[in-house]
Amino acid sequence: MSDAPNLSDDDERGCHYALLIIDMINGFDFPDGERLRHQAGPVAERIAGLAARARAAEVPVIYVNDNFGRWRSDFRHVIQHVCQHTAGAAIAERLAPGERDYFVLKPRHSGFLGTSLEVLLAHLRVRSLIVTGITGDLCVLFTAMDAYMRGFELRIPADCVASVDEANNRRALDLLRESMRVDTSPAPEIELRRDS
């Protein structure tokens, strides 16, 4: 008998919503990386709390992360590299994935472009997404736009999103609210519960 988790449980339960954590496993070793890391620190704490609540409620937690151009790596290797060799180690350790979390590596800004995210969400029967992470004016925004075009309901807690520039972050959130009617209320207002 195998000790591997029974992934068919997902098929039986059917999850109606999921939490996406975008690009928070990050070395911040790029121009403006230090500025973004400064903004991402407090956000990481709030995302970690939201992820813990999601896991307790059996809501899927999905890490959607940049592959940083490392086409031969997997997500565990990305985590190991970030934790051992970069300025993003503390954030990565705080947001370390749980045993039953999912992960999708993305090559570009949107979590949907060239990835298995859409297939995974269909497998989990997800209809609504809670989107968090960095950067609000690029990867979070583009992923949200692609999700919206695919018919997903969206919630993007403003206190769980950061960008290099705070003004750009606010503009991106304003766009999401005004153009796509996205709820950007803070994370503590999100009710997480098990689906029946």
Can you describe what's shown?
- GO terms for molecular function: hydrolase activity.
- This is Cysteine hydrolase.
- Residues 18-179 form the Isochorismatase-like domain.
- With 196 residues, the protein is α/β, with parallel strands linked by helices.
- The chain has a single domain (20-188), classed as Isochorismatase-like (Rossmann fold, 3-Layer(aba) Sandwich).
- It contains 7 helices and 6 strands.
- The chain has helices at 8-13, 33-56, 75-85, 89-94, 117-123, 139-149, 166-180; strands at 17-22, 61-66, 102-106, 128-134, 153-155, 161-162.
- Strands 1, 2, 3, 4, 5 and 6 form a 6-stranded parallel beta sheet that branches.
- It is globular.
Total count of strands:
6
H and E order: HEHEHHEHEHEEH
Kindly report how far apart the N and C termini lie. 29 Å
CATH superfamily: Isochorismatase-like
Count of alpha and pi helical runs: 7
The CATH topology name reads Rossmann fold
- pLDDT < 50 runs, ≥5 residues: 1-13
**Largest sheet composition:** 6 strands, parallel
CATH class: Alpha Beta
The chain-level structural class is alpha/beta
Give the second-level CATH assignment, the architecture.
3-Layer(aba) Sandwich
Number of domains: 1
* Fraction of residues in helix: 40-55%
InterPro entries: Isochorismatase-like_dom, Isochorismatase-like_hydrls, Isochorismatase-like_sf
Protein name: Cysteine hydrolase
Organism: Nannocystis bainbridge
GO molecular function: hydrolase activity
What would a concise description of this structure say?
The protein has 196 residues and is an alpha/beta fold. 41% of the residues lie in helices and 15% in strands. Helix 6 packs parallel to helix 7.
